[in-house]
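User: Predict the structure for this protein chain, please.
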Amino acid sequence: MEMVFPFLMLMVIGTLALVFYLGHRREELARERALNERIKPFAPSPMVLAAEKPPPVRARPAGGPAVSSNLLRPLDRWLAQGGVKIPAARFVLLAVLMGAATTAAAALWVDKPMAGLYGLAAAALPVGYVYVERRRRLVTFSQQLPYVLDFLRSALSAGHTLLRGVQMATENSPEPIATELRLVVDQIQLGSSLAEALDNMFRRVPEESLGFLVAAVRVQSEVGSSISEILDRVTDSIRSRQRLQQEIRTLTAQARMSGMIVAALPFVLLGLFALIRPNYVAPLFNTALGIRMLEAAIGLDIAAFLVIRRMIRVD
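Assistant: Here is the predicted structure, written as structure tokens:
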């Protein structure tokens, strides 16, 4: 029974994660279709665009309406940066319900401290999912940014205005940068300057590569220079930085893989012994001392993994 329960909990948590992910993808596709419908009637001229555009909707985080509570507003922004389109209050409620349900179910088989740990792990699952999605979204945005800047530079060289170039980039760029460019176009048409619109996008997408562009455009608006030359230099700087990051990841790949193997090896060996010699590992699950040893081993293994990751991290 002790071996069945962890597998059962993994299945339940995996099912909840899959449902959460599918719901997120369905809402993302629906929002993308709605945004595509909004830009269909746009004409090349900015004046015509402003005249034909329906009444503007105030830009808000992708996670839903702005939360009135000051405590939930940073969480709402964090969810929007991860592309998770649910209100912060609902996200907190989901995490609490998952933790409470898992704790109540685990209390039927294990003692209360262990049940509490299971509950904390289940409650942390949505947080981990948003953390991974946010990091993936920021990395994808950073990789797409140089190509969009090349597109804008080509549009300016062809005689188009910067606003029209951003509109064409919106129509030809993938997600997530297309959504952010649409919000930039909306803000410019509502009277904001390019520097202000890019600064707002940097608040929504706190990617360091975008910060280079925001700083360059702000200096250009104050001093005055060729925007095409500014885009050229910023693109080269971003690409050089990305190449350096890729070289660092290549050099630290062996150490990162070693950390993963060291962290996974105890669990793999425990699973193999549980299949081959169940009586050999039974004291770890059936006795109080064995359970304490197992808990200590898991804690030390996680600590070793974090130490290895910190040693190979390059700031």
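The radius of gyration is 25 Å.
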